[in-house]
Structures are given as C-alpha cells and as structure tokens.
Design goal:
Elements (H helix, E strand, L loop, with lengths): L4 E7 L2 H11 L4 E8 L11 E4 L8 H11 L3 E4 L2 H5 L2 H7 L4 E2 L3 H8 L1 H10 L7 E4 L2 H14 L5 E5 L8 E4 L2 H10 L11 E5 L4 E10 L3 E3 L4 E2 L2 E3 L3 E4 L4 E4 L8 H18 L5 E11 L2 E8 L6 H5 L7 H9 L14 E9 L13 E3 L1 H5 L4 E5 L2 E4 L2 E4 L3 E9 L2 H12 L3 E2 L4 E2 L6 H11 L1
Parallel strand pairs: 1-2, 1-4, 2-3, 4-5
Antiparallel strand pairs: 6-9, 7-8, 7-9, 10-11, 10-16, 12-15, 13-14, 15-18, 16-17, 18-23, 18-25, 19-22, 19-24, 20-23, 21-22
C-alpha cells in the first residue's frame, strides 16, 4: 500500500479504539475514521482521528454512505452486526478495499446452528448439541436429559447475535425451562432457533488467527472473563476483562492449532468459502482436551485490547498481505509482555444501568498518565473536556508488564484512580487470578 493512507474502522467500542491505535502506530497512515465510534476514541490522539456517528451498524447502506464521503484507502469492518448484515459485501461491490469476512463467511459466528454443523462436518471437537425452533419440543428434550442426570450442566444458546449474552447456563430442569422461555425475548429473532448444549466443565481460553483464505497466523492466546461478578459468578456480559497470554494454553498450543484452528480455515476453503479476516476461537480445556465453544469472525472484545498491542509488525503490512493472499510474505513479530485488561462498566450492567447514563466519570486523565497503562473508550461521552457515562461497558484499562503480577498491579492501580459520581462504577477485581496462582506456583 502507499503512504499517507486513510483508514476507516467500522465499530464503536474499546475493540475499535484498540484497532485504531494499531493503525495510528503505522507510519503509512495519516487519517483514521471510526464509525460510529465513541467520543473517547478521538480524545488526545497523535494523528487525525475522526469519530463519525452518522451510521448504524445494522445498516450497510449508512456505512457505504460514509465510505463515499471519506473515500478511505481501506475499510476495516470489525463489528459482528456489520459483518452479519453484509457490510463487507456491499463495500466491495462499490469498489472499496475491505478487511473482514463477507456475510456468508461470517456465518460461522452469526448462525450458531450452522457453525455447529460445520464443526461436525470437519471433525472439530465440540460439545453435544441439539437445535430447536419449537419451545415444547425443547422442553421435552430437557426433561429427558434431567431424568437421566438430575444435576446436568446445560447451556441454552440463541443461534443469532446477542452481544455476547446469548448463552444461558443452567444446572436444573427448572432453570433450563426458564432459559428456553427467555429465548423468545432476544431482539431480531436471535433466539427463534436455539441450541441446547452439553455444558463443558473446564478452563476457557481464546485465540485469534488472521487468514488470507489459505494461510494463517496465530496471535498470542488470551483468556476472557464473561460473567459480571468475581470468580465467574453472575450474568453473562460482553466481557469484563481479559489477559494475554493465557498460561493454560501452553501445553495444548499445537493441538489447538491443528484440531480447532487449522481445520476451520481449511474446512471453509474446502467448502468454497475461504475465510479472509480475523478468526476468533473461544475454547475450553476439558479433562486435558481442548474443545470448541464458539467461533467469531472478528477480534474479540475485550481480548483484542490485550492481544493486538503485542504485535510489533506494522499492522497495515499484515492486513495488506492478508488481502493480497500473501500472508506468508510478511514476518509477524509479537512482544513478550503480559497484558491485563479490566473493563469498567456502569453499575447495574448488564441489566438495568439507565440511572448511570449522563453521570460524570472522574480520574481518567490521571490514569492515562501512568506508565504502562492504556485506556480505551467504549461508552464515554466527552463534553467540554469532561467525561460522562453513556453505556454499559464504559472503558477498558490495559496494564502491561513483564509478567502477570506486574501487568495486573498496573491495571488495578489505574482503576483505583477512577470513579463515577454516586459510586456508579463497577468492575471485577479478579481478572487474571488463575494465572497469578500459576505464576506464583512456578516461582516456588
């Protein structure tokens, strides 16, 4: 690609803030447009960063209109709704250079039933599942399962996109029946078809691979923390924090690559639907065996905040090589640091947090000045240099260090400087606790 590039990123949260930082670090880039973004993404930047709110992520035509307005050299479609609604397809049809999978390829994320059947075809290890579009049949199936095993762990999952909140856990028949009922409440008919899956007990992990359709490169491992409360208690959220790398994956790295990542990339290519973009793997170690929980068709959030900053190679060169089908021509380097990401949210998230909207956030600028700290905006309004809450997940704090202890200490020291008026800030206090225990055990 040429110098003085203009890059447009499609998405609105801390993930897109992280991606914009990666492009900003490239000497080839002059201007970045983030659509719809949020105010904090454009705050105190080194290069020109335009936050363009006049679009809707489920409306590809609105994104096309912005592409025509700014005429970027590259559009990076980073958000799941935009991918599922065919934004990449529409932009490419209109002559734009686009990074991200087309709608048919992104189906590996937006249609959980199709994704599970794809894994069956390519012998990718996954939990047992059955899908339903009939509530009564599903309830009958649940009753059969609990007659055999009264304390069975089950997940009821919407097949459509639910912002990371579509997997409902249960350990009793009564809970499962309630979760089946809840499928009717998801927007956009995401739960019209749903899965009932065998619950897997083990430790979860995440991986990201970039693929040009044939070749791929795997970035550092990570571990997400999905539930709202410490020690994996409470409701599912979009993610409350992450670490990278995740020590739990070290003994299984080759097996994960061969059985879950490589089979997916080669499986998509064999079905004449090559995967070009970022493939996300959410997995779990069960009795010493890696299993698939889900695939996504883009960077995870909050994992992106902990993984992408480790890449030392110019991100423009990596994306360019991917789009040219020549990923093997670029040498991708990653640093050896550990990163801990802690998400700050409105009190009440993920349920009712409307009372926090518009309340002032204090301490962000002080935290930004700390060494080894990056703060990434998700739901922050900026007015006259002041910061206000405008969402559920508000920001991500990323601390980096030589090990998990240093990175975690930095992240929580920064978080301690931040508050929301009337005590309305919520965050988990245990991000990285498993790897802290492993690290201390190795020292003994």
């Amino acid at each position: 690609m040429t110098q003085h590039l203009s890059i447009m990123i499609v998405g609105s949260g801390a993930r897109e803030h992280t991606i914009s930082n990666a492009y900003e670090n490239s000497p080839q880039v002059d201007r970045i447009i983030v659509a719809p973004g949020n105010d904090f993404i454009g705050y105190r930047r080194q290069k020109e960063v335009v936050v363009e709110k006049e679009c809707y992520l489920k409306d590809p035509d609105s994104i096309l209109a912005l592409a025509r307005k700014y005429n970027p050299d590259l559009v990076d479609v980073a958000q799941d709704d935009a991918l599922a609604h065919g934004t990449v397809d529409l932009l490419e049809e209109n002559g734009f250079r686009v990074f991200g999978p087309k709608r048919a390829t992104a189906r590996i994320e937006w249609d959980k039933r199709w994704s599970r059947e794809f894994m069956q075809r390519h012998e990718i290890p996954q939990p047992k599942f059955k899908y339903f579009d009939d509530e009564n049949l599903a309830k009958g199936y649940a009753q059969e399962l609990y007659q055999k095993k009264p304390n069975l762990l089950i997940y009821t999952k919407a097949t459509g996109l639910c912002s990371g909140k579509g997997a409902l856990k249960s350990i009793s028949l009564e809970q499962t029946l309630r979760n089946i009922e809840q499928m009717k409440t998801f927007p956009d008919k995401a739960g019209a078809i749903f899965l009932i899956e065998e619950g897997l007990a083990g430790e979860e992990f995440s991986y990201h691979a970039i693929s040009d359709g044939q070749n791929y490169y795997i970035f550092k491992s990570a571990q997400d923390n999905k539930t709202v409360l410490d020690f994996d208690e409470g409701d599912q959220t979009g993610g409350m924090g992450a670490i990278s790398p995740a020590i739990v994956t070290e003994p299984f790295a080759e097996q994960i690559e061969q059985e879950i990542i490589s089979r997916a990339i080669r499986g998509m290519a064999s079905e004449y639907n090559p995967f070009r973009g970022i493939l996300y793997l959410g997995g779990i170690i069960v009795d010493g065996k890696p299993m698939n929980i889900e695939y996504n068709a883009r960077w995870g959030d909050p994992e992106c905040q902990a993984v992408l900053p480790s890449i030392e190679t110019d991100y423009v060169d990596i994306v360019d090589a991917c789009l040219n089908g020549r990923l093997t021509d670029v040498q991708i380097r990653q640093d050896k640091k550990t990163r801990v990401c802690v998400v700050g949210s409105s009190r009440g998230y993920p349920d009712n947090y409307s009372q926090v909207r518009g309340k002032r956030i204090f301490g962000l600028e002080e935290a930004m000045e700390m060494e080894g700290i990056t703060i990434l905006g998700a739901g922050i309004d900026v007015q006259d240099g002041r910061f206000y809450a405008n969402g559920g997940r508000l920001f991500s704090i990323v601390g980096e260090g030589e090990n998990i202890l240093e990175a975690k200490q930095k992240a929580y020291s920064a978080m301690a400087r931040i508050n929301i008026e009337s005590n309305n800030l919520h965050y988990r206090t245990d991000i990285g606790w498993r790897d802290v225990e492993r690290f201390l055990k190795e020292l003994r």
